[in-house]
Write a structure and sequence with these properties.
The chain is an all-alpha fold. It has one domain. The chain contains 15 helices and no strands. Helix 4 packs across helix 12 (253-278) and helix 6 (122-129) runs antiparallel to helix 8 (150-169). The chain is globular, with a radius of gyration of 22 Å. The chain starts with a helix and ends with a helix.
């Protein structure tokens, strides 16, 4: 009789612990509209700091810029590394997922993107990168067993078509395409550039899928801090090598200020917003919000860099944003029902 009471007490305690964890997770999970806002803001920030990072790349080598970015993030998020009382200790599998999230989403994506652009055209790059929403959905279906409705697939198709149309419609990209084809016609490495960009698409898609898996047990702030720490460790040898011969005295105060914004936006704000949205939104739907990256980059160019947007580009953005509406409308309709 005493043994039965002990067993009952044990399972009763486990039940209340599990119920408390579920209630805590539900209380901290944002509603759908807020999650969509976080995802949209995250990709919009990415597009903005990508457009404004051209002066930084003209001053800093790539790996040194990455080292400074992760260092700024590590300092800013040092208080986010501590484990909250409501979270379980990191398992071995979770640690590997955190490493892969940083390795694929930060390190390998950047390598594939930067070196891929050397050997292919900007138009081809835009068309290949337009496949990100579809690849995210496919990986979500395979690894996360997410059910994707026909309306979501239509939305994903509109998002991909809009990004591809935008890439083709940029006249300056067509000029760069011809120049790049002439420059690399003798080396015959265009196929390698396209292959590397396809690798970048897979890395970005894996970033979304792994991020969704991580949000099941870790809060967005701690995920952001841990991913940044892994990124800092990965890039540090290359960044220190680049810093050894770099003249920091030549950097102006305005560039340092832009670097601070870049570090906070790239390492802190965008990742935290993205992981916050993933707490609620399926990864397949979150991938559609990548269309906000070229939209915000183009708007930043128009507002701050004096660029112009053609009617074809505005049509392309309209199609891409229609994809976002279709994909997210599915989830909102289910909640309303």
């Amino acid at each position: 009789m005493l043994r039965c009471s002990v067993i009952f007490s044990y399972y009763e305690k486990r039940y209340f612990i599990a119920k408390y964890e579920t209630m805590t997770r539900t209380a901290t999970t944002p509603p759908a509209w807020l999650a969509y806002t976080c995802l949209g803001l995250s990709m919009s920030l990415v597009g903005s700091y990508v457009a404004l990072s051209k002066p930084l790349l003209a001053v800093f080598p790539v790996f040194l810029l990455a080292l400074l970015r992760f260092s700024i993030g590590a300092i800013a998020m040092s208080g986010w590394l501590r484990k909250p009382a409501t979270e379980a200790p990191l398992s071995r599998q979770t640690k590997w997922l955190l490493f892969l999230e940083s390795f694929l989403g930060n390190f390998l994506f950047s390598v594939c993107m930067l070196y891929g652009m050397r050997y292919t055209t900007a138009v081809a790059a835009g068309i290949i990168m337009s496949a990100i929403p579809a690849v995210v959905a496919a990986l979500s279906w395979v690894f996360l067993k997410e059910r994707i409705s026909w309306r979501s697939w239509v939305g994903i198709g509109c998002a991909a078509a809009g990004i591809a149309l935008y890439s083709i419609s940029k006249q300056e990209l067509l000029v760069n395409a011809n120049q790049a084809m002439e420059a690399h016609s003798t080396t015959s490495l265009v196929w390698l550039g396209n292959l590397l960009l396809m690798g970048a698409v897979l890395c970005e898609a894996a970033y979304a899928v792994i991020g969704k898996k991580l949000t099941d047990g870790i809060g967005p702030k701690r995920i952001s801090a841990l991913i940044n720490l892994f990124g800092l460790a990965l890039v540090m040898p290359f960044g220190l090598w680049a810093a050894w011969s770099f003249d920091f005295a030549q950097v102006s105060l305005s560039i340092w200020g832009l670097l601070l914004f870049y570090g906070l936006a790239a390492s802190v704000w965008t990742v935290w917003l993205w992981m916050t949205g993933l707490q609620t939104v399926p990864a397949s739907q979150a991938g559609v919000f990548t269309v906000m990256l070229p939209v915000s980059a183009a708007l930043t160019g128009v507002v701050f860099l004096g660029e112009r947007m053609s009617a074809m580009q505005m049509l392309a953005f309209g199609i891409a944003l229609l994809g976002v509406v279709l994909a997210t409308r599915t989830e909102q309709s289910r909640e309303g029902a």
